[in-house]
Each structure stands twice: as structure tokens, then as C-alpha cells.
Amino acid sequence: MFEHMEKYAGDPIFRLNEAFHRDAHPQKVNLTVGLYYDNEGHIPVLSSVKTAEQRRAVEPAPRPYLPMEGLASYRDAVQKLVFGPDYPALRDKRIATIQSVGGTGALKVGADFLHLAYPDSEIWISDPAWDNHHSIFQGAGVRTHTYSYYDPETRSLRFDQMMSELQALPRKSFVLLHACCHNPTGVDPSPEQWLQLIPVLAQRELIAFVDMAYQGFGTGLDEDAFAVRAMADAGLTFVVANSFSKNLSFYGERCGGLSVMCASAEEADGVLGQLKAAVRRNYSSPPAHGGQITSDVLNDADLHAAWLREVAEMRRRIAFVRKEAHGQLKTKLPGYDSSYFVKQHGMFTYTGLSSQQLQILREKHGVYIIESGRISVPGLNTRNIGYFTDAMADVLGA
Ligand code: PLP
């Protein structure tokens, strides 16, 4: 009955990750999957999360379904985290927010919602992109296109080109923007560039879909939300997906949020109803355990303070590794410009290594980097960074 169906090739990143685990190389280094590892190479269990879970475990509670839109305390906390605790639109109830199944679930529900609202609109996604952006929007029936983003020559943003392409889009087009720590390049617009870009969104009546999967991993939780808050200040109607996978180290618990900034409380109420309808059609209601723990961490003053320190620590470690890689490469490869390690932000850095160089890194040195040349920086630590920079020097110095 299903013989005619095309075989799913699998996700190339997960495939490479599996190859890494099969490799017997004694000094192998995994820089493939976007997971934050601590300096010991472990995915951390945050102490704020541990305490919240211990408290909840004292008296296990029944597990009814959550409402389609998720826990009210969770949704409130998402709004404060994304828009800032004192933002007037929160008081005015102009933001429709749901608890989502990770950032991916937020993108899917948001894509379904936008397609329902504007069935003829199409979406423009950065080039290069997180591949799943194309898949998710296509899966929701939205045609996808790309806008210029990264310049491999200068290893920086093609800002002028991006601006002129956005200026030429049809009205009511959707534009996928990364709030911070762009995946895969690590290159973000500066605050000044965001302030030039936002009026274009407004003038062209473009609908921004902001993906904020790495809030707190760039410059700070508030700083990383600069673009979102500037769009809100400019009075735009737009959509934001946020994720707790990275900043709460909560990958498998599938916790995120979807917020739609509206013009009025009535509009937000109607939008919330449509988001709930999209949730009902997709998965009915979000996960209770992760939702409750996330809400506890964000809403309890002590746990929240501990979490802020833990996010800052993860961010500091990423910055340290970036600086260290840059410093070591400067010594080992004096002619090579490795400043991109410190100019790019967040989990990812784009090396520009060729397929052949990546193959040598993998086969000779056991250093695994995905085909685009994107490194997941937290795979590096004080024990393997010297080995990694030696391997880079071997490949690039050849
Ligand atoms: N958006 C981007 C840019 C990502 O890199 C990721 C995860 O890697 C996501 C969204 C999805 O996040 P989640 O794992 O919470 O579904």
C-alpha cells in the first residue's frame, strides 16, 4: 500500500551525529548538533530546574490535559521574558501567547495561523537558513523563498542587499527573522541595522515571524530580545516563537512559546482563539510536566534568579571558547583570519570550510562538522580545544 512512497533520507545533522557515535577515534570531537554542553561535555541539568523538580516530586500531582493554549502562569512568564516585564502591550492585553511544543511547535502553529490569515502570502527566509524553516512552512502550505543574508567573502551580513530585497516584496509577505544568534551563521544585524530594517517592514506591510530559539546565548536575555522589543515599540503586528530548549537546557521536554503582537485586546482575543484551533488540530494540548517546571523556574523569585545566573554562565562559556579558539588559531595559523569566532554570536559559527576540508577533519582527525561548515561551538571545551585547533591548522595550513 505504501511502496510508492519516497524513502525519508533522514536529517543530515542527525545522520552525522550518529556517525560520530559509531566512530572509534580516541580524540573525536562532535561539533554537529545544536546542543549546549558544559565544559565536561555534558548536557547540563540546571540547578533551578532540579530544585523545581524536587519540589514537585514531594507530592506528585494528577496529570490532566493542559488547556490548548497551555498554563496561564507559563504564558504570562513567556510574555515577560520576550517583551520585558513592564511592556505596556502586556497590560493592554494586545499579545496572544500560547505555550508551545518547543520552538518547532511554535513555528508550526504560527505557520498554520499565518496561512489561514493570509492564504496567498508567501514567506521569505534567510539564505542560508535553518533547513527546518523551509520544511515547516512548506508543510503548512506556505511557499518559501530566500532573501540574501550572509556574505561568505566578508563573513558578515549582506545588509544592503537584504534591505533592498525586503523593500521589493509584495505587501503582506511573511519574513522569517532570527532575533539573535542566527542559525547557522552566528551573524546578526546590529541594533542600528534592526532600527533601519523595522521601518521597511512597516512601510511594506510585511509580517515578521521572529524566531528566538537562543535568547540569552548572545549578549543577554534582554539584549537578545532587542529586535522583538523594537518591533513592538514601532507598533508592528508580528509573530514571535521562543524556545526553552537551549536556555533552560530542556530539549526533550519540548517547551516554547508563540506570541502574536496585535493592534488591540479584541484582536488578540480572536487570534488566541485561532491559535487554540491550530493547536487542537495539531496536538491538542502541550506537555504538562515541562510546562509546570518552566513556569516554576520563571515565576519563583529564587529559582528565577538562579536561572539568570545559569544562563549567564552558559553564555560566558560560549564566549570563552570562542575567544580561546580565535587566540589559538592566531598562533597556530598566523595567516588565517579566525576573527569570525569572536565576531559571530551564540551557539554557531560558520567556518567556510570546504567539503574536502570537512572530510579530512572527519576522517583523519575525528572532528565532526556538518556539511555547511557550521560549528556548534559548545562542543568545544578546555580538554579538546587544543586538539581541535591543531586539526584546523593541519587542514587549513596544508
Ligand atoms: N529555530 C531555530 C533557529 C533553531 O535552531 C531551533 C533548534 O535547533 C529551533 C527553532 C527549534 O527549537 P526546539 O528545539 O525548541 O524545537
Automatic annotation (TrEMBL):
Its EC number is 2.6.1.57. It comes from the Bacteria. InterPro entries: Aminotransferase_I/II_large (IPR004839), Asp_trans (IPR000796), PyrdxlP-dep_Trfase (IPR015424), PyrdxlP-dep_Trfase_major (IPR015421), PyrdxlP-dep_Trfase_small (IPR015422). One of its GO terms (cellular component) is cytosol. One of its GO terms (biological process) is L-phenylalanine biosynthetic process from chorismate via phenylpyruvate. One of its GO terms (molecular function) is pyridoxal phosphate binding. Its cofactor is pyridoxal 5'-phosphate. Keywords: Aminotransferase, Pyridoxal phosphate, Transferase. Pfam families: Aminotran_1_2 (PF00155). Residues 27-390 form the Aminotransferase class I/classII large domain. Transmembrane segments: none annotated. Belongs to the class-I pyridoxal-phosphate-dependent aminotransferase family. Homodimer. This is Aromatic amino acid aminotransferase. It comes from Pollutimonas nitritireducens.
